[in-house]
Amino acid sequence: MMAVPEQTPPSSLEVGDYYDRLTDLMNRALGGNTHLGYWPQPGDGSSPGKAADRLTDLLIGKLRGITGRRVLDVGCGSGKPAVRLALSAPVDVVGVTVSEVQVGLATALAKQSHVADRVVFTRADAMELPFPDGSFDAAWALECLLHMPSPAQVIREIARVLRPGGRLAVTDVALRAFGRTGMKRGECTSQLLAVPALVHIDEYAGMIADAGLELHELTDIGDQVVGPSFAALRDHVNEHLDEYAAAFGIGVAEMRKVVAQCTTLPWTPDIGYVVLTARRPGE
Ligand SMILES: C[S@@+](CC[C@H](N)C(=O)[O-])C[C@H]1O[C@@H](n2cnc3c(N)ncnc32)[C@H](O)[C@@H]1O
After folding, report:
1. In its UniProt record, which GO terms are filed under biological process (predicted)?
2. 14 an active-site residue?
């Protein structure tokens, strides 16, 4: 990611198009997932797919014991986390994504996993969730806020559709407050990766409070997620340069330059990975 503050943020339609083009490659890199991996013991040799499933399991643990059974999956990707959740607990999941390709893949996965009666996916924009107030017992947003024009607006929308007492779990890539490269709010942005502007980790508490939610946990597990995941993705891009170049709509030489630039920029220590839980007060 580079500092290009004057760029126009990608619209939801553009983010959908990005995932229509990239999902197959990401799924191949991350064992059917579209999110990063978690290596609590660095160098334990787990594959990126196994580490990505482990991150899903960390979040499943955060929603354990919810009362009620209706769960919203905001930015559901190609459905693997929602299906994994449904296979681990007696819940019904509704997943939303802006990518039509992901809706198709996720729906097929739910069928193949025999949970299609409990897990459904639809194309919708999380900035304006098409659900009534108080209609979910829980929600999670796994690594999707980074793509939203306003993460604060999405958190408000999630708070609206949660019932009183409803629970929220979030993971996301975010900037660390003590960033050593001096990147400021709004400066870590990438048109190529459909990221309007990463928020600072210390902004989450305010966004949660402004949405009327109670914050329960805010942890940064970036050291166990970001470096090893980016290394795995870099290797996958290098192995499939021509496919990634086609998906990004650039030439192979340009793709090679992007990878080299991402590899040499000193920003990785500035990037954290938030795990957050919250609750809508009441009940
Ligand atoms: C990095 S992927 C994570 C996918 C999935 N949560 C997972 O963990 O595998 C980001 C997801 O956010 C979704 N997304 C981005 N902007 C969105 C928006 N405005 N409304 C709904 N989904 C959005 C993308 O379509 C994609 O599914």
Report:
1. methylation
2. no
Number of domains in the chain: 1
Tell whether 67 is covered by a domain: yes
Q: Mean pLDDT across the chain, nearest whole number?
A: 90
Please give the Cα distance from 204 to 247 (Å, whole number): 32
Taking the CA atoms of residue 77, residue 171, residue 37 and residue 50 in that order, the dihedral angle to the nearest 10 degrees is: -70
Range 197-224 average pLDDT: 94
Asked if the structure places residue 26 within a domain, the reply is yes
The Cα 25–Cα 2 span in angstroms is 22
Is 274 inside a domain boundary?
Answer: yes
Q: In terms of residue numbers, what domain contains 252?
A: 12-279
Residue 237, domain CATH: 3.40.50.150
> Which amino acid residue places its CA nearest to atom 10 of ligand 1?
144
Residue 147, ligand 1, Cβ within 6 A: yes
Catalytic residue among 143, 157, 187, 254: 143
Residue 6 in domain: no
Residue 113 is predicted with a pLDDT of 98
Distance from Cα 19 to the centre of ligand 1, integer Å? 8
